[in-house]
Amino acid sequence: MPREIKVKVRPGGSVEADFRGFAGDDCLEEAERLAGVLARFGLEVDPVRARKKTPAEIEAETGVEEEERDRVPTRE
Amino acid sequence: MSVISSYRTRIRLSPERLVGGEVDPTWRLMEEAVQAAADELGGRVTDRITDYYGRVTVCDFAVVTPEFPRGVGVRVEPSGEVVFIYDHYGGYQRVGAEIRERIAQNYAALAVARALEQMNYSVEIDEAGGGRGETRAVVVRGTL
């Protein structure tokens, strides 16, 4: 699946960024990288909130149902 | 993991317009943002605004529209901070705010597009909403 960043810019300049196709914490790293490049273009960004996508949203994007995984029991 | 993040933004230009004899990229972006706002709102770009009494204030950039002939000015402080100045006295609050918000929106959209291009994404820009009673959003999509 290709990686995609969809940024919705509202009047006044507030933005909502939707990171698609990133595995693990890659999207957080890419968000930090984007913030750094934006600062060089004169746009400072302050995170207001971030939420993990719901399984339904992920399924709608990828067509794959996200598996619920149980933690593997470990021996103390 | 995929996430949706919301951000507040603040525009801060280079304190100097000319760097090494060339216009700094942040100032070029602001020129583009101001010109786009003027085109979208049927106005023009100038370098001055007027107040209720007809007094003139010179700015770094300004947009004057038929709906708000006094205009909205953009002044860049020595720190690079951007200040919007206009006189909304007499019922011009909404149109003044609309021009100010449009300039900031265009600047943010252009900055996001340039940033994604620099990160090697293929970039497309679209508009969403903007119909009657709808808020206009600019959607910048980068694909890697």
What do these coordinates show?
The complex is a heterodimer of chains A (76) and B (144). Chain A is of the alpha+beta class and 76 residues long. Chain A has a domain of 46 residues. In chain A, 30% of the residues lie in helices and 29% in strands. Chain A contains two helices and three strands. Chain A has a two-stranded antiparallel sheet with strand order 1-2. In chain A, β1 and β2 form a beta hairpin. The radius of gyration of chain A is 16 Å and the shape is globular. The N and C termini of chain A lie far apart (39 Å). The relative contact order of chain A is 0.13. Chain B is globular. The two termini of chain B are 17 Å apart. The model of chain B has no long low-confidence stretch (mean pLDDT 95). Chain B has one domain. Chain B contains two helices and nine strands, in the order βββαββββαββ. Chain B is 29% helix and 36% strand. A four-stranded antiparallel sheet of chain B has the order 4-5-6-7. Chain B has a two-stranded antiparallel ribbon with strand order 2-3. Chain B is an alpha+beta fold and 144 residues long. The interface between A and B is large, with 48 and 47 residues. β3 of chain A pairs antiparallel with β1 of chain B.
Cα separation of the termini of chain A: 39 Å
Rg calculated over all Cα atoms of chain B:
16 Å
Report the largest inter-chain contact: A-B, 48 and 47 residues
Task: Estimate nothing, just give the exact number of structural domains of chain B.
Answer: 1
Task: Average the pLDDT over all residues of chain B and give the rounded result.
Answer: 95
Helix percent of chain B reads 25-40%
| Mean residue pLDDT of chain A | 83
